[in-house]
């Protein structure tokens, strides 16, 4: 069995290409089932987000497994296999496990350490599990990856520091005011950066928000989308008199908020402080406003310093998380290796307990007058002898699981003790059992 991860992400393809190979949400389930029926594919999970499309499979062969996944993607999106090869990364074995762990914990994201991908990975796994396209290997690996990512985020501050300008703008407001849930905010502009700032304000618990734009229709479109208020630039001076936080991001050629405007606003203000955050380039807010009492103006350079410092903090945390990944890979490999050992240990114990049971039967025939207490004492001591005798062989069997020649040595182990272990039930047997179960369900549905 071989783990393969095929990834189309922000490093391998630009956004236009990534859009072409993104699965629609209502197509993920059928796509998982379609891939699962493909030759060589024993288990599979499909992850599709705005920044990446990834397919994880357990395959019986590396080359055929990789090819059939690439062919599946090409067919699904109406492309050539070579097109998929040109925009994808292929990871196999330990590299695939490493990739899954890094993606799930946010170390492979455009925004380092973001936590949204954890939920997306969990959802992708649950969908595949519900469609029965995962089995022994992936049921263990994805639970391990999700648990690792949650623990990594909880034990580090990787996701606590803002690393986008729009998010940093809101974080700055929180640093100044503390709790900003009851503050009045104004978003100047109705473009992409304005919407990101709006979303970050809403995420921080702010509900009293007004979107202001030169064109009222655009302000209303953005405002109605997020259930906040809208107004025109002409109303800005009146709104500023009541506001606490202003985040401005327009494409205006001149200053939208001037010193003269703020001098007039300051004379009518009732609130203590007004924080102006200018994330536009060129700037929307005229420099020098800081000279006005209780009005504080920050531009994109001020925020960039905060972003850079936070990014360094995230990088330190990310490096700490990355150092834990080799241990996770080793743990996964040890678990996989034990899949072949467990049936051998089970067979050894079953043979030993059969001998003990037969011995007790013999004792009962030869010593029929034993009391129940005497029989229990003899049974307990014979089991104790067996457990002590099995301790070292079981330890040796477990160590064989990590040996390069584990299959040969486990076979010799079975010959020595004259036992025959059942085959472990990873991918191939899982797939066969699921296929048989699905076939049975189809037959019942026709009856």
Q: By CATH's scheme, which homologous superfamily of the largest domain applies?
A: Glutamyl-tRNA reductase, N-terminal domain
Residue ranges: pLDDT <50 for 5 or more in a row?
439-447
- The beta-strand count equals 10
Provide mean pLDDT, rounded. 88
Query: What fold name stands as the CATH topology of the largest domain?
Result: Beta Polymerase, domain 2
Number of domains: 3
Specify the structural class.
alpha/beta
Helix-strand string: EHHEEHHEHHHHEHEHEHEHEEHHHHH
Largest pleated sheet = 6 strands, parallel
Shape: elongated
Our estimate of the beta-strand percent is 5-15%
How many helix segments?
17
Distance between the termini: 37 Å
- What is the highest CATH level, the class of the largest domain? Alpha Beta
GO molecular function: glutamyl-tRNA reductase activity
Pathway: Porphyrin-containing compound metabolism; protoporphyrin-IX biosynthesis; 5-aminolevulinate from L-glutamyl-tRNA(Glu): step 1/2
Family: Belongs to the glutamyl-tRNA reductase family.
Enzyme class: oxidoreductase
Structural commentary:
There is one protein chain. The chain has about 450 residues and is an alpha/beta fold. It folds into three domains: about 1-155, 2-Layer Sandwich (Beta Polymerase, domain 2), CATH 3.30.460; about 165-305, Rossmann fold, CATH 3.40.50; about 330-440, no CATH class. It is built from 17 helices and ten strands. Strands 7-6-5-8-9-10 form a six-stranded parallel sheet. Strands 2-3-1-4 form a four-stranded antiparallel sheet, sandwiched between helices. Helix 12 links the parallel strand 8 and strand 9. Helix 8 (about 165-175) packs parallel to helix 9, helix 14 (about 325-365) packs antiparallel against helix 15 and helix 14 runs parallel beside helix 16. The protein is elongated, with a radius of gyration of 32 Å.
């Amino acid at each position: 069995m071989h783990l393969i991860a095929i990834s189309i992400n922000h490093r391998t393809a630009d956004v236009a290409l990534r859009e072409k190979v993104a699965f629609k949400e209502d197509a993920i389930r059928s796509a998982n089932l379609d891939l699962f029926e493909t030759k060589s594919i024993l288990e599979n999970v499909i992850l599709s987000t705005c920044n990446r499309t990834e397919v994880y499979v357990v395959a019986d062969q590396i080359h055929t497994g990789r090819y059939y996944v690439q062919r599946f993607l090409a067919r699904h999106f109406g492309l050539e296999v070579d097109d998929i090869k040109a925009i994808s990364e292929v990871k196999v074995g330990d590299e695939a496990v490493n990739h899954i762990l890094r993606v799930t914990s946010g170390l492979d994201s455009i925004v380092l350490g973001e936590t949204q991908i954890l939920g997306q990975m969990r959802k992708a796994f649950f969908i595949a599990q519900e469609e029965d396209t995962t089995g022994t290997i992936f049921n263990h690996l994805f639970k391990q990856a999700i648990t690792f990512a949650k623990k990594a985020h909880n034990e580090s501050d990787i996701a606590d520091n803002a690393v986008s300008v729009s998010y940093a703008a809101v974080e700055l407001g929180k640093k100044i005011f503390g709790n900003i849930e009851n503050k009045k905010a104004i978003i100047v502009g109705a473009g992409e950066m304005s919407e990101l700032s709006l979303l970050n304000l809403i995420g921080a618990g702010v509900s009293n928000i007004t979107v202001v734009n030169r064109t009222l229709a655009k302000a209303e479109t953005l405002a109605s989308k997020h259930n906040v208020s809208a107004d025109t630039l002409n109303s800005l001076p009146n709104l500023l008199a009541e506001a606490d936080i202003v985040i401005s991001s327009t494409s205006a050629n001149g200053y939208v908020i001037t010193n003269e405007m703020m001098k007039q606003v300051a004379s009518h203000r009732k609130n203590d402080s007004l924080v102006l955050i200018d994330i536009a380039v060129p700037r929307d807010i005229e420099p020098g406003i800081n000279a006005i009492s209780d009005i504080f103006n920050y531009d994109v350079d001020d925020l960039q310093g905060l972003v850079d410092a936070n990014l360094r903090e995230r990088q330190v945390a990310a490096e700490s998380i990355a150092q834990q990944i080799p241990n996770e890979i080793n743990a996964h490999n040890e678990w996989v290796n034990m899949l072949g050992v467990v049936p051998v240990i089970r067979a050894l114990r079953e043979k030993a307990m059969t001998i003990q049971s037969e011995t007790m039967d013999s004792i009962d025939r030869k010593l029929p007058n034993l009391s129940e207490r005497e029989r229990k004492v003899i049974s307990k001591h014979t089991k104790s002898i067996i457990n002590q005798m099995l301790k070292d062989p079981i330890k040796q069997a477990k160590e064989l699981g990590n040996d390069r020649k584990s299959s040969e040595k486990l076979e010799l182990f079975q010959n020595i003790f004259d036992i025959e272990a059942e085959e472990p039930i990873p991918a191939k047997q899982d797939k066969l059992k699921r296929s048989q179960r699905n076939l049975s369900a189809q037959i019942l549905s026709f009856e």
